[in-house]
Amino acid sequence: MTIAEQIMQLLKGAGVRRMFGMPGGGSNADLIEAAAKFAIPFSLAHSETASAMMAIAQAEVTGHPGVCIATLGPGAASIMNGIAQAYLDRVPLLVITDCHPQALRHMQHQALCHTAMFSPVTKFSAEVSLENAYDVLSNAIEALLKAPPGPVHIDISAQVTSSTTSGQFRGPNPRSPTGNAGPSEIPLQVQDLLRQMRRPLFLIGLAARTKDISAALKTFCDRSGIPALVTYKAKGVVPDHQRWFAGLLTNGALEREILKRADCFIALGLDPVELLPVPWRYSQPVISVSPWHIEQQQIPVAIELVGDVLEWLKILASSLPAESDWSPSEVAEFLQAQRAAMRPPNQDGKLAPHRVVELTADVYRGVRVTVDAGAHMFPVMSFWPANEPCDVLISNGLSTMGYALPAAIGAALLDPSRPTVALTGDGGLLMCLGELRTAARENLPLRIIVFDDNVLSLIKIKQIKRGYRTDGVTIGAMNWAAIANSMGVLGRSASTEGELRTCLQETAEHPGPVLIAAKVSVDTYPETMRALRG
């Protein structure tokens, strides 16, 4: 086999479902050809960053690595934002870039040191040569599958991918079980601490997003009466409708009251990369339970338990009191107060952002959503009902704009029979506008809801708060329906609740992608920000 074919054989064994990219020539062509031989489809994106985000979405939904390719020089430079997202959002992503063959290394055209560029934001970055191919590829796959999750990069020229080899590269080893600690191994200080606790509170983060952990946690909460806060990426691990769901954890003001009333925090998979970069203001002890050690200095963790989270949950259950002092009505009051704060009165009578979320959720119940960064994401995360882990996909470690549409494409390609809703601001959509054509070309059942306010609202709020002029944030009016229609996407627009409901209902059964521009008021955003962050 060629080395390109061997790479694809390794990726197939690692569970890769699809490859994405904006290809050049060189090794890209060899890899696309080899992927087809191993039934790994290739999807063309219209920017390198978008291709990485499509692959990231698939990795998060499936639990297997995502893969994207880029050409040398400008292609490699353009994919950096996608790599940064995988790095800070803790996603297994393999990025394969083209490079000049050894014989042309003295040439300067399009020549960048890719490994130097990517090394700070990857777990592993190396160039593959004919001499080191076995070691580099084997080590790359091993790093890709090893916890904690993150991006891995290999640089490879067509001289290498087109070469044949009689040897076999080392495939992925079965993941060895971690955290097999028995009840006797739990530290005595943890047992003593938990037995004294009457109001423990779960803090659920991105490393707990599995169906098994979700099922065990729901049972645990119901049996012991322990409420749970979830980060944005962990939304759905404890469903919004579950009686012990206590809201969102951001390290902001909205959840402050319930945090103050707890006497202990049990952090399951909580990675502070998701939290607002402000000091942790709570003195209660924190017990961190995670499948891998989390490097952080924001939260003062009293005890860290690393390993199999399900096993640790069983152990903790044996040490906690049978019932807590929390009551379902108390938790419900906290949650209702949080949501009330996220529904400020709309003075101008226009379409309120939170109503866009509620109306869309009413029509598209049970679907997966992707959420872009921007002011609109706050009402989205507060009001969109999630029932399962990864029902809501969001970039919260990097919090990058231009994420929702590419992520929705990646997720929808896993199951084109299930609608996927992308909730995006107009500024974020402009950053990845070409991917409307990708959605149309793949004929995906996407529902793209644009919060159309003609401005970078979140940045404008920050300018006003600091007493600055509001320069450089106005987008201007866009005819989103016309733009969508020109790219093969069914386009609609709505300015009132009635118009939006009609658009949603009339397009619900459309077989391809739909874009609905909801012309929203910006009046509620400042109050929403104050409620969230104080």
Can you lay out the helices and strands and say which pair or pack?
Layout: H1 3-13, E1 19-22, H2 26-37, E2 42-44, H3 48-62, E3 66-70, H4 74-78, H5 80-88, E4 93-98, H6 114-118, E5 124-128, H7 133-145, E6 151-156, H8 158-161, H9 188-196, E7 200-204, H10 211-224, E8 228-230, E9 245-248, H11 256-261, E10 264-268, E11 286-290, E12 303-306, H12 309-319, H13 328-341, H14 353-363, E13 368-371, H15 377-383, E14 392-394, H16 404-414, E15 420-425, H17 426-431, H18 435-441, E16 446-452, H19 457-465, H20 480-486, E17 490-494, H21 497-507, E18 514-519, H22 525-533
Parallel strand pairs: 1-2, 1-3, 3-4, 4-6, 5-6, 7-8, 7-10, 8-9, 10-11, 11-12, 13-14, 13-15, 15-16, 16-18, 17-18
Helix pairs in contact: 1-2, 3-5, 3-16, 10-12, 14-21
Structural features, described:
The protein has 534 residues and is of the alpha/beta class. It folds into three domains: 3-161, Thiamin diphosphate (ThDP)-binding fold, Pyr/PP domains (Rossmann fold); 183-336, Rossmann fold (3-Layer(aba) Sandwich), CATH 3.40.50.1220; 342-533, 3-Layer(aba) Sandwich (Rossmann fold), CATH 3.40.50.970. It has 22 helices and 18 strands. It has a six-stranded parallel β-sheet with strand order 2-1-3-4-6-5. Strands 9-8-7-10-11-12 form a six-stranded parallel β-sheet. It has a six-stranded parallel β-sheet with strand order 14-13-15-16-18-17, sandwiched between helices. Strand 17, helix 21 and strand 18 (514-519) form a beta-alpha-beta unit. Helix 3 (48-62) crosses helix 16 (404-414) and helix 10 (211-224) runs parallel beside helix 12. The longest helix is centred in the N-terminal third of the chain and has 15 residues, at 48-62. It is globular and about 70 Å long. The termini are far apart. Residues 176-184 have low confidence and may be disordered.
